[in-house]
Amino acid sequence: MDKVPIVPADDAAKSRLKKLAWHFECHHKAKPEFFIRVPGRVNLIGEHIDYSGYAVCPMAIEQNILVAIGQSKDDRISITNIDPKYEEIDMDLSISSFR
Question: For residue 63, which of 36, 40, 56, 68 is within the disulfide window of CB 3.0 to 4.6 Å?
């Protein structure tokens, strides 16, 4: 596969995407460049044994995580959550900050 498939959002996801876009724009003063939807997963059999190379039987579920992505104008990464109970994370990614 040469390209990542783009799947249209259903009505429930569209509502969540609008809320996420609004939050992103308020926080970052820019529109997101793209969104990612990460499906949830449940292991029917073999919980935590896949780390050791054993077989598992995972299955995607309806619950998912939506992520809005935008390019920073500096060497920083900022991670925020729509739910205020989670703290914002802001990190300097410049080489000098890792010395």
Answer: 40
Let me know if residue 25 belongs to a domain. Answer: yes
pLDDT digits over 36-85, tens only? 988 898 888 877 777 788 888 888 888 889 999 999 888 889 999 999 99
User: What is the spatial distance between Cα 43 and Cα 56, in angstroms, rounded to a whole number?
Assistant: 7
Cα end-to-end span (Å), the chain:
39
Would residue 3 count as lying in a domain? no
φ, ψ (nearest 5 deg) of residue 65: -120, 135
**Reported pTM:** 0.72
**Distances from the Cα of 43 to the Cα of 37, 48, 55, 56, angstroms:** 19, 9, 11, 7
